[in-house]
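Moderator note: this is an archived Q&A kept for reference. The question asked for a predicted structure of one protein chain; the sequence and the answer are reproduced below.
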Amino acid sequence: MSLRLVLRGREPRWLAPVLVIVAVVIVFLLTAGPIRGAGANPQAAYQRYVLTPLTGTASVTEVVLAAIPILFTGLAVAVAFRSGYWNIGAEGQFLAGAIGATVVGLYLRDLPGPVAIPLALLAGAAAGVVWSLLPALLRVRFGIDEVVTTLLLNPVALLLVQGLLNGPWRGSNGFPVSDELGPGYRMPAVIPGSRVHWGVVIAAVLAIAIWIVMSRSATGLRLRAVGLSPAAARFSGIAVRRTLLRSALVSGAIAGLGGADQVLGVGHKLSQEVSSSYGYTGIVVATLGALTAGGVVLVALLLGDITVGAQNASLVLQLPPQMGEIVSSLLMLAVVSVLVLRRYKISWRRVAARSPGAAPSPGGSR
């Protein structure tokens, strides 16, 4: 018997939901042992991870808050990947955006809110564009692989943040954290009494705009054409290099906007922990969301749900906080693995055994 993956002629409508359910079952079986070993009931743990954060208004707002930064980076990665530009540098662009917002907030402290917040957001988006420009130019001009160049710029951005916080931006208290930005740079809350800020509205508007552009405009058609087949797109008259450059810069701007939003809405200052690997998580979010705006929103909310649930499980069930990261990582890996079966099906083929008296094949040993 031989096992092969064969391309499907047509995907059944029920297949994708069934595969996601299979992935969830696989993750439950894989993590039940470690959870049991940590002294907790797996069923109670999963209830805390997934259901408990959705049972109260306060916890739901925390889920939304946790989803905001990865929603920005997921949308950024989705835009780039759609055009065939493999931007692995959303983490660095996110950090660059946080730096850009901090520059404005520290040196123009007295601006009023209606001016300060838009200016800081624009500065963050511009910083993300600048950070993404060099890899994009290297790709379109010299054909240098953007996977390597964008990835290598991520630790550079982190070192830049650390250098600023241990140098000119060290806080007045002596710790490597910047001073608070001016009072006009505090993003107001959407829901009074909660920590959910107007960044969620910006991200939602951005997701709707990306959905319209990608699915209802000629620009989106050109992006998808370049991503599917650059040679065919070039033959049809599409400027492939220009399209790649624009998608790369737009992707950097969205990631930078997310970094600025995180500083203005959550930290109100720059610290080394401004990004909890949001850029790398955005790659997973975009991939699981099928590079669509709606899919990115759903996956970002799911990860936000698990993040808040992991904190609850740690307090109530005394599970290690890292267990939530293990669950979410295994879930992402399992879903990506089983979704391969959307395009391919498993084919078993029986290999006929050669009879003892069969003649050797031509060119065989004599």
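Archived answer notes: The radius of gyration is 24 Å.
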